[in-house]
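Lab notebook, page 48
Experiment: co-folding of the full assembly
Goal: obtain a model of how the components sit together before planning crosslinking
Operator: M.T.
Materials (sequences as entered):
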Amino acid sequence: MALDHTHDPAARSWLASAQAGGCDFPIQNLPFAEFRLAGTQEAFRGGVAIGDQVVDLAALAAAGTLDGPALQAARACAQPVLNDFFALGPAAWRALRHALFAALNEDAPAADADAVRACLRPQAAIEFALPARVGDYTDFYTSIDHALNIGRLLKPDDPITPNFQWIPIAYHGRVSTLGVSGQAFHRPMGQTLAPGAKAPSYGPCARLDYELELGIYIGRGNAAGEAIPLERAEDHVFGICLLNDWSARDIQFWEMAPLGPFLAKNFATTVSPWIVTMDALAPYRSAWTRPAEHPQPLPYLDSQGNREHGAIDIRLEVWLESQRDRDEADGPTRLSGTSFRHQYWSIAQMVAHHTAGGCSLNPGDLFGSGTISGPGPGEAGAMIELTRGGQAPIALANGESRGFLQDGDAVMLRGWCEKPGAARIGFGESRGTVLACRLPG
Amino acid sequence: MALDHTHDPAARSWLASAQAGGCDFPIQNLPFAEFRLAGTQEAFRGGVAIGDQVVDLAALAAAGTLDGPALQAARACAQPVLNDFFALGPAAWRALRHALFAALNEDAPAADADAVRACLRPQAAIEFALPARVGDYTDFYTSIDHALNIGRLLKPDDPITPNFQWIPIAYHGRVSTLGVSGQAFHRPMGQTLAPGAKAPSYGPCARLDYELELGIYIGRGNAAGEAIPLERAEDHVFGICLLNDWSARDIQFWEMAPLGPFLAKNFATTVSPWIVTMDALAPYRSAWTRPAEHPQPLPYLDSQGNREHGAIDIRLEVWLESQRDRDEADGPTRLSGTSFRHQYWSIAQMVAHHTAGGCSLNPGDLFGSGTISGPGPGEAGAMIELTRGGQAPIALANGESRGFLQDGDAVMLRGWCEKPGAARIGFGESRGTVLACRLPG
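Observation: model returned without errors.
Model output:
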């Protein structure tokens, strides 16, 4: 978690928009995405956000101003997925970060600044793709407040399973329906069992929900049979995005015993386009703590480093914009807000556990953190928690209310880091929209 | 399920080994794999088995004797994965099948036979790769005898969940550790909770098991939000292989509530190299039946066609070869045998259910059928069933016994179809070997 000059809060870019108030992308951030000019058939290529612009890394790699590991890294980023860049490992990621920081800095030599300026494209004119070819997507379940909130609805006397405090619980998710921010999807159909009914029926989901999560991209993988030890786990993590694990609660509760959620989750998962690197997140690390009266981790999930700085204080919010909001030009409603620092298991523990049995990870694999709910009221990361299973609908700013999501609703996830003595850096947005159910024809 | 001349049991190839007794690969079969000459760095390419040979489809595509859709199909098969071939759809698959059948037939024009003969490579000299780039792997749970056998061990009074008879239950599995026959893997480590213990411990799996399954390759996919109706489901299926879903039972039972198996299954999954096409399986179709006293499928999972020929009579066996068997040149032991025709849900029902909520499938996606256990004694597809959770070890032919798998054990799955009035066709073998646990260092 060592800090270097790229974390200096006083650093400034020659690009004025990077210093704008509330900007997610100052020079201390430099997140990666795959983009092209919107509405074209250009090839997608890697880019790095700065202010309201993106640095086209394919153009920069060809510009002749980079060399060594930074050039090799930029060339890997010129491809339509970032997998080869991820596979290069932390030294290459850092070399490119440092080169971009130098060239974007207000103190940069004019020639370097000019070369990068020629590679800038306005963010307002671009569209995004998934940043990686995801080989496997794993969804964790690591917020104890989320687990308790859900468990109390279903089993008030026994809200969490005994393994929760021992295992960063996870299951494999669906890759084919991963989408980048802007994804719109039809309300799923499925089997549900109505209360008191003797037989299920098939129809549109009536309890559609979102889940506030972070997405974690694996940088370098491991060979099958070779576990990644906890103390080296973060060397295998490239960075973090926002992730919405859309969930059909009525389908979920009927289908999930004994093998877990399936159709309830596999119709859509929306990630934000920008990946904030672990390097950029270094200033916002915090201690990973476990209440003394709770079970403490087994040795393979415990280390001094993880206890000292395993957590990350990423502030998170969920916003809802209804069809009426758009029709009447009202603003969206903030549904909740919390921080990732409360999570019961850390990212390093997720990586160590995932590989502890011999499972291999590959560059570009994606983890979902699991729903992120904090301990306080208004900190829940899913609507089922906020509305107590739909029993206590929440009011929107425009006078509507919601027990679950309605057609036309857009859900936006936002995230950022800030603290005294450090810059504010942001994640941009993950936005997804619910379309009406597409009835079989 | 229409039969054509390629199903004529009297058809013979000019290649004598295709008519050998017990041969899995007569001219009526023609299964696909990805292969290269063993021990070389050649590119993998598609091949079709005939007798003890394989037709090199890259060579055949270049030979100049194919044309039209068969040539297009063979060219797609020249690649190191069959995904593009799968995406061409049933008419292209059938065109290539018919062209190969004609050229391999004893009545083939000499020029055509000579062209194919020049493309033959001996199976004894080749090695295999996974035949497709699997985007998503889904494991089903569709044998009621398996579910009852396992359920009675865990919950004798309530052995299966109420959804089992309504839903072809499934969960998402791990792609990164899929391996082709010959796969060897280290016994996994993991958390387990010993009987009566208050806290789990981390160590080598002590209850390592196999699961006899079939693997089902998706040929053509569907767009997200567009369900595949039951009556067209098999148009989206390319073919079937053998699949061993290795399972760590002690890890599984501690980790799997509430979100399903994870480390217990994701360390290795072994498939056979040859994919037997749905066309080749047409003669062995049988009625899909559901006892009248059981719940009948909801309309989206029910059709006259599925009831008439939804099942397939694929005979299956599990064999175990221990280290001592190899050391002393003893033969393996047959552990069990059954047929896929008993399965509670059909392949078409799996496809229809998987897409019923809006999930997209892609060419090369793989389904596991779930463990295949038949109704009789000796028909169980996993060791935990045969040994009643390890309580009743089974005797091997060499005098050893097994409650669960030991290091050095190789498990072989075999499958074939035969019936009066049809040829016997086989699946070859899926073989995997358990290596000693690799302790973290």
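Interpretation: The domain at 5-129 of chain A is CATH 2.30.30.230 (SH3 type barrels.).
Next step: discuss with group before ordering constructs.
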